[in-house]
Amino acid sequence: MTQHITIADVARAAGVSVTTVSRILNGRFEKMRPATRKRVEMAIHSLNYVPAASAQRLRQAQGHVIGVLVGDISNPFSSLLAKGIDDVLQKAGYDILLMNTNNSIDTEARALKRLYQQRVDGIIVQPNSRHFTQYEFTKRNNVPLVIVDREVDDQPQITGKVTSTNRDACYQLGKSLSRRGYDNILTISARFAEASGQIPRIAGLKLAAKEAGLSYRNIETRGHDRQWLTQAFRKQFNALDGRTAVISLMGPVLFDLLSIFKNLNLTFPADLGLVSFDDWEWSQYVGDGIFLLKQDMELMGNIAADKLLTQISKKDSTSSTTLLPVETVERHSI
Questions:
Q1: Is residue 330 part of a domain?
Q2: What CATH number does residue 44 fall under?
Q3: Beta carbons within 8 Å of 32's beta carbon, 6+ residues apart
Q4: Closest CA to 247 of 225, 222, 219
Q5: Alpha-carbon Rg of the chain, whole angstroms?
Q6: Measuring CA to CA, which residue among 71, 134, 67, 124 is closest to residue 101?
Q7: Are 188 and 282 in the same domain?
Q8: Closest to 307 in 3D by CA, of 61, 92, 100
Q9: Which residues form the HTH lacI-type domain (predicted)?
Q10: Which position among 94, 110, 117, 147 has the lowest Cβ density within 10 Å, counted as fewest Cβ atoms?
């Protein structure tokens, strides 16, 4: 078993009180004999004593630790988001405590409670809940908070938010598909979290389809395997008349669709159009390239971290909303 050296061990070795050691650790040397200070410092060095981070935070106004909650750490875009946050916070002298909520509201609630108990200086969350009551304690306890990527319906204006123009980008995409002669929009979603970023995407496409007179359908894949999706896709696709554009509303769904198209002997854009969210670099080499809608997750993380640092420094008691544009990468799959 590893033996942890405590402040009491240092005090015994130096022949002083725990209070004296604590004062030296906190740089309070006033009215202290140089010989006493030297004796304590030698004991600290010989015992290899390192103060516990949690104890330091209790003694300090700030511990320079930021809590970061992501929905799914296995999703490369959550990882890019965390990297963007860490790149900014490291330069500002902060460490991050990264926690994976697994797209669960209950897991997220426990993680938020733990971060508060750890006395973090602020929290950045990729939310799972669509209701701000999940995060209300941060407001009550003056914990700086920034919500990133996904949207919370009743979020107060004073709480920072960084997200993408998902709804507008999908609305414009729907209009573009109409101009290109498509009659149907068939989206494939995988909304694992209540506050999924796919919700505004669906809303934008629905509105564009309604205005342009296109049919709109969605297949929700959560809880189902690829075999189920193959059957559901075949049924929906065969029931549609005219040209159909298929849209993957979440990057990983694209892998399933490409497999399904191969099994059903469907090619794009001859048999259907194909659009996908997220920046899959390899997608340019599939056929003549896949039409993409891209979000810059690292930049989103950078801006979220900057917003949180502004709150922490008290330069601005309120925090604004930043909407990042969704980039269109036009390729020949539609």
A1: no
A2: 1.10.260.40
A3: 20, 23, 24
A4: 219
A5: 26
A6: 71
A7: yes
A8: 92
A9: 5-60
A10: 117
- 286 with 309, same domain? no
Per the structure block, which two tokens stand in for 109?
A: 């609630």
Which range is least confidently modeled, 64-78, 118-132, 197-211, 314-328?
314-328
Look at residue 232 in the predicted model and tell me its pLDDT.
97
Distance CA 279, CA 75 (A): 13
**Can you give the residue range of the structural domain that contains 311?**
65-164+297-324
Q: How far apart are CA 319 and CA 46, in angstroms?
A: 48
Residues 6+ apart with CB under 8 A from 202: 170, 187, 189, 218, 249
Rounded to two decimals, the pTM is 0.79
Query: For residues 13 and 23, what is the distance between their CA atoms, to the nearest angstrom?
Result: 16
Closest CA to 166 of 132, 203, 193: 203
- Indicate the length of the chain as a whole number: 334
Both tokens assigned to 156: 């107060």
Q: Classify burial at 224, counting beta carbons within 10 Å of its beta carbon; exposed 0-12, middle 13-18, buried 19 or more.
A: middle
Q: Which long-range contacts (CB under 8 A, 24 or more apart) does 286-291 make?
A: 286/258, 286/333, 287/332, 287/333, 288/331, 288/332, 288/333, 289/331, 289/332, 289/333, 290/254, 290/331, 290/333, 291/328, 291/329, 291/330, 291/331, 291/332, 291/333, 291/334
Give the count of domains, the chain.
Answer: 3
Chain-centroid distance of CA 65 in Å reads 17
Q: In terms of DSSP H, where are the helices of 48-119?
A: 53-59, 76-91, 105-117
Longest dimension (CA), the chain: 90
Statement to judge: residues 147 and 228 lie in one domain: no
Q: Which of 69, 58, 197, 193 is nearest to 122 (CA)?
A: 69
pLDDT band at 316 (very low <50, low <70, confident <90, very high): low
What CA–CA distance (Å, rounded) separates 150 from 128? 8
- Do residues 180 and 256 both lie within one domain? yes
